[in-house]
Write a structure and sequence with these properties.
Length: about 650
């Protein structure tokens, strides 16, 4: 038996948000009072509590006018474990977005839907309608466990997929906030349950193993302070990385025996994408293997991991509060040791796994019971009617006529399933007539790309993302065609800020907004999203896209191995060689000097220093590498004198 962990001493000063949570009486105040006012917005403390209920206050920056009040509106996000959206819920979301929203739905990268553009006076009406249609928004945002992900493929004849989706739902229930505030505020106290919890989940929540539960009647797992920051979990099957396993706080991989019976789970911990520009102590990180747990103990182990982060996560510095920093600071061995103290037993070694591959499940598939499922690509997750593309109308017609359930994917696409074979042609015709492309008609650059919403509604956005990426992909495709690389494609992801909602740090080519018209450029991720990319350029003005990428792509064309992806090439050849080639590249001959050095060096510059360096290099007719090397060499010489 492992000893119980020591009590974590109370930090001398908690962050401001910890006080807001403590004063909220389990997510009630001051939200209840602020929702009753005539103001179009709510103040900061209420905003923070509203997040736990699944909503963000935003303002449309396109509509800002000097001297006028901001165009306040609210975004709602569904809690949809495994991406499950029943037909009734989809119809409700569609209607709500038309009546109270901005006439669009947004499929997220965590398998939920967002409605944008709701005004404060309609917030309660919209929330209540979602709850009464088998939906929920509780825990879709805030400092607690977010939507639990699972592979969206509805295979009936593949037990691993059935188990992954089943346990995603159960773990979501286990870690759902127990506060009565949600129903008190949005349903006037009516307790509305769309499905009964599994008995094992109820028992596990009540079971207090070595301090995993707190002395809190309303929130036995979270307590009054909830988690230090957001917490993300995914459950998947061996080999299937459709849910970006390595980016999760906790990743579970189902392990079956030879008879396809569930035995347990391999567990990964410590992934996370968020970071802050110019704060090198913040960084993206991929998860580490923790070990193996039997199915009988999986709930207790999940609670033990949650309790470790709850009690030891940083509640003073929110930039340092995600569990990835705890794992990174302690190391995986110490982290495992503390988790084992809560768990009450040792964690077994991980079981062997095959290599993970990315799947998107677009197109038609047999689901294993005589019925079909159809994966539909949604560019950047935006469900709307726009010119020739009438996707929203097509989905409305299909859902009403055939009453099909759907599952959202981690790459903001959707899957319709339980389709009778006799309905396949009619459904395909509806989509074709609405301008929805089949998977074979989509440029792979578009198919595997993702962008966050960013401007105009996200308050964190520095640069455009969703609205910019279509033209960016067009420019990249034109460049590939120009260089006789028309058969090439790679994973492109773009965000308007460094928080990483579209997971750009796992991309082969990642754009991260750093200025209104400039992005950090990240390279070296892989097609299957199992390797972290790295910063190649601190600041890339978007109008320099072609001049920046052309030498890299020419180098790839010359020195890439057969069937090697662009991301794998960048990682293999090294950033020094890439920079050397770029600095000596002659576009008239499409040649450059290839570095003979295999040693990799990287120096990140502050944005303002980079700008000055670039301007000076241009004035003096030198490359950035030459000027930076001369400047650093001179500085070091002065130090030694």
């Amino acid at each position: 038996m492992v000893n119980a962990p020591p009590k974590q001493p109370t930090p001398p000063k908690l962050s401001k948000l910890e006080g807001i949570k403590e004063r909220s009486h389990h997510l009630r105040h001051p939200l209840i009072a602020e929702l009753q006012t005539d103001a179009r917005n709510i103040p900061e403390e209420a905003i923070q509590i509203l997040k736990f209920h699944g909503s963000y206050q935003q303002d449309n920056r396109d509509n800002r006018a000097k001297g006028q009040e901001k165009d306040y509106q609210f975004m709602l996000r569904t809690r949809s474990p495994g991406g499950f959206i029943p037909a009734q819920l989809y119809q409700t979301l569609d209607e709500l977005s038309e009546t109270y929203g901005n006439h669009t739905l947004r499929a997220t990268t965590r398998q939920g839907f967002q409605i944008h553009g709701i005004v404060k006076q309609n917030l309660k009406t919209v929330m209540a309608a979602i709850i009464h249609s088998m939906g929920s928004t509780l825990g879709a945002c805030g400092d607690l466990n977010r939507n639990v992900m699972a592979p969206p493929a509805p295979y009936v004849n593949r037990p691993a997929y059935v188990y992954a989706q089943e346990y995603a739902n159960r773990i979501a229930d286990l870690l759902t906030p127990q506060t009565g505030a949600y129903y008190e505020i949005w349903l006037d106290g009516e307790k509305f349950l769309s499905a009964e919890e599994h008995p094992e989940v109820k028992a596990a929540r009540q079971r207090n193993t070595n301090g995993t539960n707190l002395d809190d009647d309303e929130e036995p797992i979270y307590g009054q302070h909830y988690m230090p920051r957001k917490f993300k979990i995914a459950v998947t099957v061996p080999g299937d990385n459709s849910i970006d396993l390595y980016t999760q706080d906790v990743g579970l991989v189902v392990i079956l025996d030879d008879q396809d019976k569930l035995q347990g789970f391999n567990v990964f911990v410590g992934g996370g994408m968020g970071r802050t520009h110019k704060k090198e102590e913040t960084f993206a990180r991929i998860a580490d293997p923790l070990g193996y747990v039997t199915k009988e103990d999986v709930y207790d182990l999940v609670k033990a991991i949650v309790a470790t982060q709850r009690d030891y996560g940083d509640r003073q510095q929110r930039r340092h509060a995600r569990m990835k920093y705890l794992v990174n600071d302690w190391g995986i061995d110490k982290f495992r040791s503390v988790v084992e103290q809560y768990f009450g037993k040792s964690i077994a070694p991980s079981r062997p796994l095959p290599e993970f591959k990315y799947e998107d499940y677009l197109g038609w598939h047999e689901q294993g019971d005589g019925q079909l499922f159809l994966g539909i690509s949604i560019e950047n997750g935006r469900v709307f009617d726009n010119g020739k593309l009438q996707l929203k109308s097509a989905l409305r017609q299909i859902t009403k006529q055939y009453y099909l359930p759907m599952r959202l994917t981690a790459n903001h696409n959707l899957i319709l399933y339980n389709i009778q074979p006799g309905d396949q042609t009619a459904i395909q015709d509806i989509l074709k007539n609405a301008g929805v492309l089949a998977e074979t008609e989509i440029d792979p650059l578009v198919r595997y790309a993702m962008a966050c919403p960013a401007l105009p509604t996200c308050g964190l956005a520095i640069a455009e993302s969703e609205r910019a990426i279509p033209s960016i992909l067009d420019r990249i495709r034109a460049l590939l065609n120009k260089l006789d690389l028309s058969d090439q494609h790679f994973v492109v992801r773009m965000t308007g800020c460094p928080n990483g909602c579209a997971r750009p740090y796992m991309a082969e080519l990642g754009f991260v907004g750093i200025k209104p018209t400039a992005y950090q450029l990240w390279l070296g991720g892989c097609p299957n999203q199992t390797r972290l990319a790295r910063t190649f350029m601190e600041v890339m003005p978007i109008d320099e896209l072609e001049t920046t990428l052309e030498p890299l792509l020419v180098f790839f064309k010359q020195k890439g191995k057969p069937a090697e992806s662009f991301g794998d090439f960048c990682d293999r050849i090294g950033f020094d060689a890439l920079r050397q080639y770029s600095d000596t590249y002659d576009p008239t001959t499409q040649t450059g000097k290839i570095s003979s050095s295999r040693v990799r060096h990287r120096v990140n510059l502050r944005a303002e220093v980079y700008d000055r360096l670039k301007q000076t290099a241009s004035t003096q007719g030198k490359t950035l590498t030459e000027l930076a090397s001369d400047a650093i060499d001179l500085y070091l010489q002065n130090l030694s004198q």
